[in-house]
Write a structure and sequence with these properties.
Blueprint lengths: L1 H9 L18 E6 L9 E7 L2 E5 L6 E6 L7 E6 L2 E6 L4 E5 L6 E5 L3 E9 L6 H4 L9 E4 L1 H15 L5 H19 L5 H5 L9 H13 L7 H8 L3 H12 L3 H19 L4 H7 L5 H12 L3 H23 L5
Antiparallel strand pairs: 1-2, 2-9, 3-8, 4-7, 4-9, 5-6, 5-8, 7-10
Helix pairs in contact: 3-4, 4-9, 6-7, 7-8, 10-11
C-alpha cells in the first residue's frame, strides 16, 4: 500500500478531471488519467488506481461501463455489491467487468491493490439500431473473460497515455467495435445472433476515391469516422470494415500515416510554429506531437526541420557549383 500511496502522491499535481462521479477519488482510489480534455467521440475513458479496501460506487446514468485491468493485480478477489447483486470474481488476464446503464449505486471491494484499471463509458448512441442493426437488447451486469474487448481497452489506455495524430479516429473506431462486440457476444436476447451484420466487400473505386480525397482535404481538420462513412454512404461500423478491405489498413492507421507525411511537408516547406502544426493535425499539445513524431521518425520536429534546411542549403550550393562555367 505504501507503494500505491507514493504513486498517487507523484500524480497529485495537475490532476485529471473525471468523466463522471461514479468513483469517489479519495481513500484507496485515485484517478490517474482521463479523456475529458481529449475531444474523443464515441466513448469516454479513465485510468484509475484502486487500493485495497471498499470503494463506494455509483453506476453511470445513461452510459454502459466496462472495466478492464491493465497488467498487474491479477489473482485478486474483486467483490461488487449493488441492489441485491453480489458479484465475486478473481482478477485474471482479459477479465472484463460490465455495468449496464442505470445500474444502481453500491460498492466494490478490492482484496489487493490494483495499480491500473481502465474504465470505459459507451453512450446509448453506440447501441442504436441504425449502427448495429439490433432493435432491442438487454445487457446485464457480468464479469467475463474476453481477449478482444480487453485488447481494445489496452489500446485505448495506450492512447490515453501517449496521444497520436489519429488517436481520436482510433478511439471512435474502437467505440464502434466495442459496442458491436457486446451486442454480438454478451447480450441476453436472440436478436444479437443475427443483428450485427458484416460488410461483404470493400469500397468500390468511386467511393474509395471520394473518401481518400475527403481525407486529404481534411488532414488539418477534425476528421471523424462519421464524416468518412457519410461520404461512402455507409454506417460507421460497415465503413470501417469496408475501408480496411479496400486499403489494407484501418481508417485511423491510414489517416495517421497521411498526417505524418503532412507534418513532414509543413516542417520542410514553411515557417509555421510547431504548436500551430500540432494543433492543426489534431494533437492536444505540442509535447504530444513531438513525442509521436519522434517515435515515428526518430527525430524531434525541430530537428527534422533543421536537417531538411541543411540539406536544402547543401543542394543549393551543389547546383550553384554545377552551373558555374568551367575555365580553361
Amino acid at each position: 500500500m505504501q507503494i500505491m500511496q507514493k504513486q498517487w502522491a507523484a500524480v497529485s499535481r495537475n490532476e485529471p478531471q473525471p468523466y463522471c462521479d461514479a468513483w469517489q477519488s479519495q481513500g484507496p482510489t485515485k484517478l490517474l488519467s482521463s479523456s475529458v480534455d481529449r475531444g474523443w467521440s464515441g466513448l469516454a475513458a479513465e485510468l484509475w488506481a484502486h487500493g485495497k479496501g471498499v470503494v463506494p460506487w455509483r453506476g453511470a446514468t445513461s452510459d454502459t461501463q466496462i472495466c478492464v485491468g491493465i497488467p498487474g493485480g491479477f489473482g485478486s478477489l474483486i467483490t461488487r455489491r449493488a441492489s441485491g447483486i453480489l458479484d465475486q470474481t478473481v482478477g485474471r488476464p482479459n477479465m472484463v467487468w460490465l455495468s449496464p446503464a442505470g445500474w444502481q449505486e453500491g460498492s466494490v471491494e478490492f482484496a489487493d491493490d490494483l495499480p491500473g484499471v481502465m474504465h470505459i463509458y459507451l453512450p446509448p448512441s453506440q447501441f442504436s439500431p441504425s449502427k448495429l442493426g439490433v432493435d432491442s437488447y438487454d445487457l446485464a451486469p457480468a464479469a467475463f473473460e474476453d481477449p478482444l474487448l480487453s485488447g481494445m481497452a489496452r489500446v485505448i489506455a495506450s492512447e490515453l497515455r501517449s496521444e497520436t495524430s489519429a488517436g481520436r479516429l482510433l478511439v471512435e473506431s474502437l467505440a464502434n467495435s466495442m459496442a458491436a462486440r457486446l451486442v454480438q457476444k454478451h447480450v441476453s436476447t436472440p436478436a444479437a445472433e443475427s443483428g450485427v451484420l458484416h460488410a461483404r466487400g470493400g469500397l468500390d473505386r468511386r467511393r474509395l476515391h471520394r473518401v481518400l480525397d475527403y481525407i486529404e482535404a481534411n488532414l488539418e481538420g477534425d476528421l471523424r469516422l462519421d464524416g468518412m462513412a457519410s461520404i461512402a454512404c455507409l454506417s460507421r461500423y460497415h465503413f470501417a470494415r469496408a475501408f480496411r478491405q479496400s486499403v489494407g489498413e484501418s481508417p485511423h492507421r491510414y489517416v495517421s500515416a497521411r498526417r505524418l507525411e503532412r507534418a513532414k511537408a509543413l516542417l520542410i516547406s514553411g515557417d509555421r510554429s510547431l504548436v500551430d502544426i500540432a494543433l492543426s493535425l489534431s494533437f492536444s499539445s505540442q509535447a504530444n506531437f513531438t513525442r509521436a513524431f519522434k517515435q515515428a521518425t526518430g527525430h524531434a520536429p525541430g530537428q527534422y526541420r533543421q536537417m531538411a534546411s541543411t540539406r536544402r542549403s547543401e543542394w543549393s550550393l551543389t547546383d550553384a557549383r554545377r552551373s558555374q562555367p568551367i575555365l580553361a
